[in-house]
Protein 1
Amino acid sequence: LAKTTQPISMDSYEGQEVNITCSHNNIATNDYITWYQQFPSQGPRFIIQGYKTKVTNEVASLFIPADRKSSTLSLPRVSLSDTAVYYCLVGNNAGNNRKLIWGLGTSLAVNP
Amino acid sequence: EPEVTQTPSHQVTQMGQEVILRCVPISNHLYFYWYRQILGQKVEFLVSFYNNEISEKSEIFDDQFSVERPDGSNFTLKIRSTKLEDSAMYFCASIPGGKEQYFGPGTRLTVT
């Protein structure tokens, strides 16, 4: 499974756009890129998933360049409640083995 | 919105004792997972379960661990003889067959 690298921590302010970049140089052809959010003492929560180009949902956008060796999670206009750890994961959606291999994630602190 | 539930929320046990952590996945989901997260560390895959059998397990999931789906709804993780290093948050997750893993709120296991 592909290993991911992302910044350990980031700081931002309310109302700003936050971009968290993840590198995954060894991503396989069948792998998707998935981002999860985790608050302290809670289970991770799915944010967004993509394979290539751009994906947008009601909470975030995911930008994936053509070589797919990196991806950027974009959170528009963050609020204090977006303070959390954000994990970038790669893996495939096929078959009955879809375990996720987690890194340390990016700890985002949103300040007033 | 349906959600994964886990009981108990916090379990304190003495070293060497057996514990059973319980999870109720979302009905009609097909794939089930257990993960653990030691305080301040990354989420670690333990085991995946599909079609009433283990599909993959990590090196952490040794003979002290077992999983069952005894009644078609509950999904349990048993640790036969707990060690101090088993202290962690244990998360259950389930997938309907698509891309998103739905995580439960976790059980905090404290081994003294």
Protein 2
Amino acid sequence: RKEVEQDPGPFNVPEGATVAFNCTYSNSASQSFFWYRQDCRKEPKLLMSVYSSGNEDGRFTAQLNRASQYISLLIRDSKLSDSATYLCVVNMGGYIPTFGRGTSLIVHP
Amino acid sequence: NAGVTQTPKFQVLKTGQSMTLQCAQDMNHNSMYWYRQDPGMGLRLIYYSASEGTTDKGEVPNGYNVSRLNKREFSLRLESAAPSQTSVYFCASNPGQGNGEKLFFGSGTQLSVL
């Protein structure tokens, strides 16, 4: 079982829709959590960190559920430019960030 | 501020050839990483260096070697390339305080082994 799991999608949504992704992790001792965005095999770029109390950045909301060992990303009012792959990253202690396989989002007109 | 610089951007090798991927960062980061990305597989860690002078295996180290030349540079070597090593390779770094800081990535190397 992979340590960090994501639904690969694709999630195909119209502009303006709200879409949510989940990511589950296996190590209950995991310490830090991130969402990265990746466009067309370019380098991943940090979208947002995920804090225990949940956090919001504009149209994006991230939440952490330690009891159920998952993090989520909610995107409101989807834009065409949100089309990308969203990577969940979990740091399970120390120096090793572990990536999920990514969730593909396609926003169509 | 260049951040993380990877070279080359593209490379085609024949089976059995060797090559070294170069990575340098100018952010005074302690930790550096090499990942490979294959379709549908996400990023998988090949090797990492928590600090200058140390290197450790990641999830998929077979067929690779690394050198942490100094604090700035972390190279990845393929001694005898195989078609299974066709992939996109990313170098990354972070401050390396051991508590999960965000990663800074290079722009990637597209490697094809024929």
Protein 3
Amino acid sequence: KAGVTQTPRYLIKTRGQQVTLSCSPISGHRSVSWYQQTPGQGLQFLFEYFSETQRNKGNFPGRFSGRQFSNSRSEMNVSTLELGDSALYLCASSSGGINTGELFFGEGSRLTVL
Amino acid sequence: SQKIEQNSEALNIQEGKTATLTCNYTNYSPAYLQWYRQDPGRGPVFLLLIRENEKEKRKERLKVTFDTTLKQSLFHITASQPADSATYLCAPGDSNYQLIWGAGTKLIIKP
């Protein structure tokens, strides 16, 4: 079956702009979680959605938000972009949630903020 | 605060030898721990999950141990191959359903 799909793969924005990233999970998976990855840093957990409800949230400012649709597809939005937001944003899907085992990751969306 | 430490420097191993990667955690009592492989420009790929009541888990050439007393997990790749070269991430998980990720160890297997 198809894997996790993230769009766009690459994007360049300027400070102050906002961006929306999309994630389509594996069919049948109800959990989608988002992560920020920067060089030398581990994946930083942003939030998890399960059946359209935010179930967990990491320690990121309110500029980072997300949502999940009834078909389990998820979007994350970053408003008022800062240079430090440049990173690889990864989403992962799972059937039961981030605590139940294997996460399936997409290839990521690489955001560059100028 | 919770802290996950993996070898920050790249690990160079000769092909055919066993590679051993370390994951240490502090101020944390994870209920389970996962290991992932990440290739450059790609998303992580799940390898193994081990729970706190399991001492060891194996999958083909991979073996993971989990020592809750030492607060450490070891990840072994036996008969290593150049194709095993990648960054390996450990991710302990707690009862609050959050995974905290290590920064990863870059493994280089030399032919």
Protein 4
Amino acid sequence: KQEVTQIPAALSVPEGENLVLNCSFTDSAIYNLQWFRQDPGKGLTSLLLIQSSQREQTSGRLNASLDKSSGRSTLYIAASQPGDSATYLCAVRTSSQAGTALIFGKGTTLSVSS
Amino acid sequence: KAGVTQTPRYLIKTRGQQVTLSCSPISGHRSVSWYQQTPGQGLQFLFEYFSETQRNKGNFPGRFSGRQFSNSRSEMNVSTLELGDSALYLCASSPGLAGTYNEQFFGPGTRLTVL
């Protein structure tokens, strides 16, 4: 059974710092991995999607890497800003019952202070 | 292009009642998936619909059901509500079957409180 773990559960940094969020998964047989952002009480915003054949994806100040063999992904945020404060969720698409499903980690709650 | 919309945004029900939640996917998207989010369990997959057919289902009791209409809009129903059903219910859409390569786009969610 696929399990996704995100460490740390919470992180506080001053504005301007570069930071790394970690995601690990137990079964390397994934189709893709997606990073999301969730603001309090809101839905999820897709940040980056990495297909299983890819090693990394970049969007602005965000860079996500994927190492399928070791079951790990990292989300790198450059020059953090207070507006980056949110919960970041990692999800892997994996086979399940009759099809595929997104399995989520519990998230890392990031607080960036000005 | 409008995003995924969910109605209502907030609901308060009592135990034993039933509830229906609605989701309108992004225009042109044919796949709709539903998720339950609670503080204890996090985000859990409920089911996925594509072309009006349920394609996959998570580990939830039969009280949770859904359907999809010909215009891709989807509804989710929970019968005989329990206190533990209190959660944020999220709907996500993708262009095709949420299979190997499709990115999912989420709506704002419906906050259900069961008293």
